[in-house]
Protein 1
Amino acid sequence: MKYSNKNDNIKLTCRKNIAVGFDPGGGSVMPKKKVFQVTALVLLLAGILAAGILLLTQDRNLGRSEHQADLSANTDEVLSGDIDPSKERYLFRLAEDTAEVRRENYQYEFVFFWVDGHLARLEPGEDVWLELRDCSSGEVLREYRQEYLSLQQEDSLLGLTVDYNGQLWVLLCNAESEYRVENGDMLQADKVTCYLSDYPMPFAPSAFFVWENVAVMQGNDESGVPLMAVYDLETGKPTVFQNVDSFCLDPEGGLYYNQIDSSGSTSLLRKRSLSENREDWQVNPKLEDGESIRQLFFQPGIGLFTMTQDTGQIDCRDSESGEKLYMLFSAAEDTDLADEVNFYQMVFGVDKAFHVWLSLLETDFNTTPFTHTRYTWEYEPYLSQIDPEDTVTLTITAPYPVDPIVSSIQMYTRQHPEVQFQWDTAYTSREAFREHSSQYGEQLTLRLMAGDVGDILMVNGSGLDAGAILQTDVMADLSVYLDECPFRNDLIQSPLEELREEDDSIRALPVAIQPNYLIYNETLADQLGLNWDLDQLTWSKILDLAAEWQSENLDISLFLSSVSDDFLYSLLLANLDTLELEDGTVDAGQEWFRNLIQQYRSVQGCSQWKKPVGDETFWWSPGVFSNALFMSYAGADYENFFNHLQLCEENNSISLRLIPIPLGEESEKRQSYAFCWGIPTVSEQKDTAWDFLEFVISDDGLVSDTYFAETCLLNQTADRQRFEEELTHVNGAITDEQNRHYEEFQSVLEHPVSRLMEPVGWYNAVYQPVSAYLTDELSLDEAIRQINENWSSILQSKS
């Protein structure tokens, strides 16, 4: 697809700081993993942000990898005709990519339109002003002549669009800042011109479309808040919808749009009927944590498509309800673009053969005049033609299909089309499984012992008693594979060592870790003269300090506490192993344990032990953390946590530090959590199964380097990539303080751990009797007797 760049007949000028280009994201975002030299950036920043110029590099062939080049040369079958993506998730490969230098007025040239059954775009014409061309064939569908416009002197072109009938519409602004919409390809007798009575955006709209006598525009107001304006072209009066960041229209006047809340954390997908002036429906799009819809596209004959901003996931949705029907495509899984560009900046279209088209614009500021390049990628669904004798099928046994593993399978299959996967599951989701986890765990244990499982098994989080299972030989030893892993030194050692048995075997792989740690107020500690070895801090030392502060009635607290914090839970887990004596018996009546529980009882309700954070207060707000020493935290929500950590320091003029959770009284290890996978011994495809698991823990094995939002990764290189990408995406840069805290976080992960999941049955056996003692339902002796009986019974059943 080579198009003309001829622009001799272009007369419209582009007004300063108004529309030098459409940006579907409404702003400029730097690419993820590139460093750019952008001269004159300071001088041009206001104009760049307003115009939505995309700052990308110019010296690359984006998206074309060696792998894709190989795929293009093989004999795989390109799917065409009657295919049904609702029944099967197809593989996609790059069919064609282009990089075309564009003229100055380029803002409309990468938006996709649907006209007469064709996916099309506007292009500079050879002998006319503009042509509407089919994206695949280049066939000219319409021609548009500039002389049909009622141009006035110094008119500025702010927008161009084509409706479903192929009618061209323009948005213009004159020297008096009067805005008007008119059709640009009709003879003067059929001319439609509408002056807009109110234009709520300081710059050109990011999106512009017309249906019959209605024009819809999306952009930002003076404060940068996104909005959508719906104009009646008979009166010129708008109806403005706040916090709308994307929309599309269907041929019947259905207006679909994504409306975010004021915090930007949640959104609703909505549909309005323009002909009836009513809302038809609204629905929660049910996206992954941290994801949001960024683009919408309607393809008559198929329906509504939405695209997410972080992973470029394209879902087909029911136009009558907004509910997701199926996922068609994921730019993160199906392309090699993730390391090159932000999907946030792309527009997309889907043609009638289910080919996915992606496009973005970049501007090189080092040329005079600036050089604008339009990149386009066409991805086609295909079936790999592999000899059945060369095909390997891996069965994954898990309670439910795990989303990050599903995505990894898609990426792995692009590189290894000879490997096929099938899921052996009992539930459709994590939520459905949680209601039946114990029952499923019992059934899976029996299946595992009988050898009735797949080639890859979800170990932790599946209801299994992993501690007992991994001490047997029903799971294959992965230590040999790990020793030969090319990035072995990039893996966090402590969780692997916890899984190492006495015979040196490692029978599970902790793909992702959900860490527990403390946020420590170093400033307050210095003021109090505390001189602790924070790596060796125990619960008894903390309880002693609480008792001291309580006796002195000091206005300070050990812990800043939320409603969900359960310090007793953590204290008991830290000391659980030492309740079992060397001879295998359980003695919860040991003096140190009795004293510890009594200590906790004496301080549990005092203000010196914990300071609650109110429902309307954040822990990083001014004055909240200044007189508290610790806060317990779990998880790795990088996008928010490190910003909140720095805000807390700034708002309270304190220095914070991330430290390990307290140790048990006679323990050198700490409780941790991880999502572990393994290979059952009965598998006949161990090498292939390991090859896939090794891919998952590589630095390219998970979409956005994320398993779940609350987890960090076993691979430190991949985890660092996620940290940098999320902070850079949100802030534009990472501060020295955030880097310091991330290093502290990684240091916490290296401390020895006692286990990667909680022992089955411990809560009822140990926690509940102690809790009953604290609420006077049991005496301490009665609680100890119950613990001894209950916990002994559980340990004996495992031996």
Protein 2
Amino acid sequence: MANLVLAVLTARRIARNAAPLACALVLGGLVVLDAAERLPPVAAATALVVLVAALVQRARRRAAAIEASALLDLEVGALLVVATFAAVLRLDGSLDGDAHAGLYVVIALVSAFARPGASLLVALTAAALELGVRSAMAARGAPIAWGAAAPHIGFMSIFSVLNATVLRAEISRVRKASNTRLQAEIDRLRDDARSYRLLSAPAQARGVAQKGDDERLARSGVEEIHQSVLFALRLLRESLDLYTAMLLWQSDAGTHLRISELASDAPNLSEGPFLSGDGVFGAALTQRAPVVIGGLKPGYKLPYYVGPSPVRAVCALPVFEHGQARGVLVVDRVEDRPFSPRELELIDEACRYAVRAIQNERVFVQLERAKVEQGKLYRAAEALGAATTEAGVIEAGVTSAREITSVDFAAVTLYDEAQKVHEIRAVSGDGGAELTGQRFRHNSGLVSMVLQNRHPLPYRGEYDDKRQVVFTRRVAPPSMPSIIVLPLCVHDRPLGTLVLGSKRRAAFNDSVRSTLEVLASHMAVSLSNARMMRRLEELATMDGLTGLLNKRAMLEVADQKITAARRFSRRLSVLVTDIDHFKKVNDTYGHDVGDVIIKGLGDVLRRAKRTTDAVARFGGEEFVVICEETDARGAMLLAERVREELGRTTFHAAGSNGPVQCQVTCSIGVATYPEAGTTWEELFKAADESLYVSKRSGRNRSTAWSPSMRSGSGHPPAAEASAPAKAGSEPPARPAKAGSEPPARPAKAASEPPAPARAAAEAGAQARAAAARAAGAAPQRRAPVGGGAPALAGPDSAPAAGRRVAASAPPKVPGAPGEAEPRSKPRRPSEADPASKPKTAA
């Protein structure tokens, strides 16, 4: 059904996408028919309306698209060509008139804006329509100039190729020039930011995310510095009647000076850069004091003017930051008036203002960068806190590392401290399939050394695959220049490592490494919490001895599976398994051997079940299996397979008196949904009834539920079946032989046996109980009175020991009513001493 729906949706999508192009082809066919024979006015008007509507709709969509697809270009071009041919035929009546030149304009327009492939198809469509229309006109007997078709098609091709080539070449040139100017402006901005020390590292050594953040901060910082400096220079120029006021800043190498900001009306200023030792610049930087020059001649040469300088007085002051010369502030005036000490003091104050503006912006950028880093760590901590599994923690940690810096390879290893073994749990990047799941011993590689020293390695994240080993020589990550291995530790307890790699050099510098270390610590805590949560879930849902589901978890699974079976009308079977005579095993060999047997039965059930089945230890030696999509026959096959495999299994354990080997059997009850019930309570009760039928029928067997069990036929009443035999009580009647009548029930008050007979019967029961205790057996369970399946005579008859011990029949008491004659009569007690103890048969 899903495939059919998918096919229908795909067909609808294809039809919807192909409808405009199909419409253009149909309209082109109508143009050819109109050339052969004029269409009726109604048909022609209808075709015109459809053509205009389709053309307007596709043109509006093409105009709204930022980057249109080739199919959309082809649709618009084909509709334009069809419309042009229709107009030419209606205006000139043929393709040899003056209106045919409009077709070349359409071809050139489509070639200019459409993709190359779409332009070629549009030109082919125009050529096909040209030939089709001329053929149609020839069919109706009109004189056709076939010689004009070839030039027309040739001109279409020439217009298409030339327009596409020339226009696209011009567009490419303009785009390239714009990109060049933009890149130059970005480079200038970066240089200014580095000269102001707003950037601490070259941009190419930083990650993509951090590069974008740094550029944004640097751009805003440089703009703020320029605005502050420009304000100071304009204020200084207006107050001192200056011609030019200019701040020049040194490059990182200190060899050049670049114009940081200026306020001037001079048309012949040079853009620079200038050498630090040129003219007044070199004098101010060398003397580390203001340089004031007055009375300049008209032909005096200044470095920052192109040609003769128009000024007569100039002053250059070095700009200092923390005692180091960082730039030069140059002012000049056209009037031949020297600068006074008061004016020099104002110029010096402007220098200090510019330096304070740069320092303030530098601090602001650092705070913004710290804010950005804290935001990344906050998002990382939030993602790691939301992860509740090891896989979720690993995925959140790797994603957060990619946000902090440029990461091309990431791996997480987990460490087993008891076995000294590392395991690569997850890998992101090249070679992930080969590395995931690899295990290696503790060695001298970077991963092992990081866990041993609790410190990131290698130093500065510089990796050389020829001298360094990350995992092992055989198990190695892809070769890349930058790799860092971070420890994952909680309370100085190693959990594993986080391995990050980048194809960029110096990708893990000091600032990035400190942030990654904080991320690793958060990741380690989240990983420890995920393990603890997984352990808590196991303790809450798993049985501690067998590793199977416990009763609480089984009840939840049972409700889900029964709901699904009811929803989809499926069969579902429940198996209840119980170990036969398990109490005798515990009493004989000890509870430690009983635990071994319980774990063994759990292993048998785990091996026998399917992946969709659920197995749980319900309590004591009782297990429950829920099988989906299984009827009563399939459940009985599973039950018999479990029972036979358990019977063939020999359990070895260390008993109190040495090694113990024992075999046990089990009884199984089966109930199937919906015959046995529609709720879990009904199904479990039916399976439990089937289990007790297996117990009463001799144990070591499987029984499927049937409606007769619910009505009470076919098995003894529950009250009588579960009543244990007590010492000193009335001895039970022997089971009747095949085909014989059951023994009569003892008479009530009116037919009470005499006192000597009752005393003899009680004495016989006491002797039988003493013999059973001497043999190490539990008291004998009474056989059901009135027929039915007899109960087992006692623990001595359990098949766990591989043999059955028959209990002796009670001695016949003279005069006891309802007593059947035994096959071999035991020796009667003396008539004179009726209270003497009878002997029992072994």
Protein 3
Amino acid sequence: MLPEAQGPRPGPSAPSAPLEPTLPYDAGAASSDPTPSERAPTRLWSPQRPAPPPSPPAAVPPPPSPPLAVPPPPSPPAAVRPPPARVAAALRAAVAALGRILQRKPRGAGPRPPLRPQLLRWGKRLAIAFAGLLAAAVLAFFLVVRRYEADLPTTAELKNYNPPQVTRFLARDGTVLGELFVERRTLVPVTEIPPVMSLAALAAEDARFYKHDGLNYLGMLRALLVNLRSAEARQGGSTITQQVVKNVLLTHERTLDRKMRELLLARRIEQELTKDQILELYLNHIYFGHGRYGVEEAARFYFGKSVRQVTLAEAALLAGIVKGPSIYSPRVNKERAEKRRAFVLGQMREKRFVPAAQVDAALAEPIRLAPEPEHSDELAPEVLAEAERALRKAVGPEARYGGYTVVTSIDPTMQAAARAAVRQNLDAYAARHGLVAPFVRKKGDPAPFQGAPRDQNRAYLGVVTGADDARGTLAIRVGAAQGTVDLRSERRYNPRGLPPSRFAEVGKVLRVRFAGEPEAGKLRLDLGPQGALVALDARTREIVALVGGYEGARGGLDRASHAHRQPGSTFKAIVYGYGIHARKLTAASMLETNPAALEGYKPGNYDESEGQSPKRLREALAHSVNVAAVAALRDVGPEAVVAWARELGIASKLGADLSLALGAYEVTPREMAGAYATFAAGGVVQEPVLVTKIMGPRGEALPLPARPPPRPAMTAAEAYVTTDLLTSVVKVGTAKQALSLRRPIAGKTGTTNDAKDAWFVGYSTDIACAVWTGFDDATPLGGGEVGSSAALPAFIAFMDKAHAGRPATDFPEPLGIVRLPIDPETGALAMPGQENAVEEVFLEGTEPTGVALPDPSAIGQGILDLFKPQ
């Protein structure tokens, strides 16, 4: 405090008056001080300012002394007004002190201190303050970085990049049968990606990619200014490295926390990966719309070819899509895509990535898109299910990451022919039995189901209760449950697309099946039977076609491989084949056809005209005489036939009794096709195969389970005799319709009791095929339905397409075959010159030795003829 603020110092004998708070001026206070108007103007500070006049008695003021720290006077109570003189003195003292601080002069008069030392002192103070602030900022930044680095994801995932890929299932010719994927992606090494594709991506997203260290600071600043100017996030400043970090290691959320992690990781992976590795990650991971990830899948989808084959214009188009697939996809907006392509090409010109002449040519090139790929799941869904199981068995849990290529033995042309044949056959059945809309009530309609339906795996008879044309649904009551049928998914029974109100009359009883739990109320029509077809290459035993049902939906039942049904008379070929193999039967063996001649098991014959007399084995097989087959089984032994069936590849449970001859024990169509293929292949047994090769994500071939080597089950001559017998079924027997194929065909029809199952199994020199038709719940097919009407037509339709362009070839006759004329009535050797003699084939050593005796009546007639006048 300045001396002037201390006021007059009292003499030594004068008592000190208490210091009272005062205001500068109080009109009501008793004071001798002049009023403000009487005061002279007072400057804030001046070195020449005289000391205030001393109070009486006069005294010489003491020399200046260091200011005393006098505490400010206490604030007066609100009701007390302090004397103004002391307040004014205090203010003057404060102003003087402030001036002294500003001037930094010692108390008292003297020259102004030099400015340079003051500036140096302030400079040092500011430098120290700035250094402190900088150190604090560095420390804070270090702590923030350490905080984010503490839980950053590791970049090891990028070094061992293994994203979800597409697993493809191929036919034998490379046709894609189906795909399995979480994300539709196929990895391609950066060395196999053409330069135009890489350069186009750089031009569109990050032209300085090979120059920066992961962060483009100028780009980030430019994006910040643009976004601030527009008050929204309109432009991103992310480099390709940052995009890889965001897409592979982080999420897409827009937060400061995620951005900090992205910046740190971008710098880290730039130190751990090469630029080419980062670019490869980017090109294989980015999204191109329509469910396609990576440049390979994008090129296949938009242009129908590998990325290895794209042109400059196509590469620019692909690179332009990345910014906004839903906006710039040429399948969404071709004009917008073309403008975006022009921008990318312009960037490539500006950055001198490609010559200007090439850019001009690319700009003039029209956009040519490949046809959008169609879903081909309906072609071979049964194949996809089995091939997927084989993949999982071969590679284990790694299969879920995808990237594999599974090659099957399926011939796509034959597969399509097989599907069409099964559907045409079942549609023909529906037409024969009136199972085509519209459905109206009839007197003979069966009674509907009564009660509470609980089994979703069985069919029910329900009553139509209403129709909703707007929703395309049909309301059906099944006992106590109410459900609906979506006719939009019932093309099989509604090929003309009739509305529900016209499809079925209210009150009509229809056969339905629950699509899930009965409580859900979702129904499917189950009006007609199902069918299955499996075809094998007779030489390699590779499955060339596999159809498990009419619908052809993934996840459906593969009846060709897994439906166990009674094979009926098709099993007779195995019984007779064993008799030939065991040398216990020949083509000329006479077999009993009269049921009364059997003991114990006495089946009837389908044709009641049979059974009047014994028949040769060839005739009995051609006309499917049941009693003859049972008699043959009795002679050769049921146990031996069961073992023989095992040799032929039938693994299903078989009983060693006489009903085996008529196919009473259930097998699969696939087993029957394999057994018949043995006859076609000259007696060699080989396990049918569907998956022929599995390749890993890098194209490496993976080991498959060892396939059992081929083994002979019978000699070529035995197989030839069996085949020759089966050709009689087509030539003169129950399968004469197959003559329309105009090539040698061997096979056998089959029909079970009540026509619950209808079969035809047959083969040519090239292909063995089995066809089955029936209801899943073994409902009878109906009157007049047999193997020749309900299964054989599908066989003929398929084999006709499968052999298109192939020459007709006969079954080759091996060594060990003897052909002799025999008497058709007895099976013995024919007499010389016998007019009704027929040629028969025998294994060498099994031919008959006796000669047929002439008919006595014929002999007598011949003698009489000698005496007739000429």
Protein 4
Amino acid sequence: MKCEKCGADIPAGAKTCPKCNAAAPQNTVPQNKSVNTTDKNKSASAGKKNTNSNSNQKLTSSGKINTSGQAPSGTEDNEFDRQYSLMFESNQSNVGDADYEIDESLKKKREARYDDSFANMTDDEKIKALEAARLARKERREKKQAKRSGGIFSSFSGQDKENKTVKETVETGERSDSSAPFGQRSHKAAGAAERKIERVQSSSDISTVSGSADKSDAAEKRPKRSGKRSKNFKVSPKTGLIAGVIVAVLVISVVIASVNMASKVTAGIPATPTVYAKDNSLYSYYGGKSVEVSQNFIASEYTEQTEPTATPNRNRDDDEEETPTPAPKFEPIKEKELINYTADGTLSYFLDNADLNNNTGSLQYTQNSKKNSTVKIADNVYYDIEIAEDGSGVLYLTDTDEFGAGGTLNFWSNISKKAVKLSDNVNIGNFRFGQNGNSALYITEYNGEYFVGDLYLAEITKGEVAEAKKIESDVYKVFGTNPTGKSVVYAKNYNTENECFEIYLKNDNLGEPVMVTDGSRIEPVFLKNSEGMYIGGTYEEYYQSLYYASLENGEKEKIAGGLTEIIKMSKDEQAVVFRKANAEGTAFDYFYANQAGTEGQLIAENVTVLDDEDHKKVSQFEINDDFTKAAFIQGYDLANESGALFVVSITNGVVGSDKKISDTAYSCNITPDGQTIRYADNYDIKWNLVTLNAYTGEQSKVLAQEVGAGAFSFDKTGSYIVYAKNYSLETRTGDVYCVDNKGKTVEVVKGVSSYGLKNNGEIVYYNKQDNGSNFELFFTREDGKKSKSIDKDVTKVVLY
């Protein structure tokens, strides 16, 4: 028997609850009948609140005040509450809120009882009682919504509910993934996706040389603005080197697009600026030169707002009226999110005079390493901007609210150095450049209740913007264009129940828009070198079909089934890797599919889902850009932090048999040529240490031992691994080393507090002495040679 007040078990024959002293329920209801105790729970919650106060008064299950300290009889009240609750259950709908048939006599009796109970309460008790009732309603509402959310598969769709993001990177196959530290792709990346499928998270992944993870920087989840925020995607190509007394090992994944590389490069990977602050002045180090770019980086630090105090309202029927969904909680951005740079690393766009209470500031442009090149573009700019692939311009919003909604969309040309207003009433995420930056796409007048707005396209030629043309009405989301910018792909008819939408194509040759597919849950993957795209569609029983579709006429061919999300496109754009979530949502199977096929070929199965902060550094699936070899960890066991590592070859579009190379793998990586599998294994649970290995030519070789589990980075060229060890608790420093795939080890630098491996192989580091606030920042190559001081009296490294 369960207590109707607190839910505790009541021994047979007992007259009162041993936990809360409430009267034991009477057997007035058959045991097999489901009874809603909503109102009893609400009152009980209120009673618990008062029990924790200084008052000796307690609320009974009916909401009345009990000052005796003894258990109330409760029989009459319990039966009344049962009848009252059943009144609200009689017409409950499974697709929405209930249509209640109100029994007015019961309602009036209830109101009279509440008035009587409130008359005996202090103001503080009234507030607590009302707050408890509100929380109970909120909990019921969330449970109801969870049942209608589409199950566990909704968390794997490209159409994510928490403003999660997707971005395509094609030429390198690398993901602009600030959540994948240490030079390796995230476990959710499945080997550096061309499409950024996974969540954009905080890039401040801190790890000590001993391997202990600092969990202070949790994954950032931007709140969706109810009725306004759109579910669009963005790129966030930045990572910060975090100051502190522990070794931070972070790597920035720069988006490499089809641009004219004018910067200095290492092995074809462009150099990127290292941005740091000295007090409130901002500096950029690039090409061997340090330049001050702002004297007032942050104008207003974030000040957390206090919640308004609730006040009782006796005229409100708390039992009948559902409290509206609360407004999303504002969260300030990280300082590194105020800074963006072009794919070739030569130009930067950043906000200074930033107000972190509304995530806005003055948008500035600068040529990295060039003095006096900073140009102010606009004031009151929302931080989330879009930069053209070739750096020729930027799209940005002004005059938004703190969530980036309802702003004015503008385009600034790096060629003419002029700004042009495109439209009013545009939300963040509802604008983007077409392929190659030759057009601007945006949705205006967006209705967040029905997920619709008007889609426009404005052509851009040599920095000049043509008059915008309306493409379509009632558009849910815009995805992009073909390489020439003439064919526009967008979504309509978003279904909140299954999170699916229809994908449409429009160009001048078609006349009317063509629906390419329905039942899609992911963003298309556009080809860069031809008129095609990979899409998901015809969602059924939790999975989509994978199609290759023409961007000329919208015709499609099915190439696989069982799709949850696309992970990566091959360098020649002829194939993709996708994954399928199991029914429990605990593991993925990975498949290979090409344009000539009709079904996917299994590459890996039972790859554990690791989506928590502690495992962001763990990469479980890797495939090289040519799609010739893949490595994966099967059955990762959280108890011992390891699984079985396999390698598999793909020859002429056929997936071969896999081969096991380790039983205790912790994380894996594959070199661009596919010749070497680099991996960490033999995880030491007590000391958080791993062993680094390289598998080449059917043989494994140990490269380094007793390495901090969170303190190693695989370089992008596939030539070496940078790692830290010998962490000292006394000095809070460690030693940094570099080892190649044959085991040759070089000491890079000793006694550092923090270091970061840049995307092009350069290393920045510092040693914070005596817990001081300032430090000297250094630069060196991976071999430790040509070490150079960047600057002194540095207070923080913002990104690198």
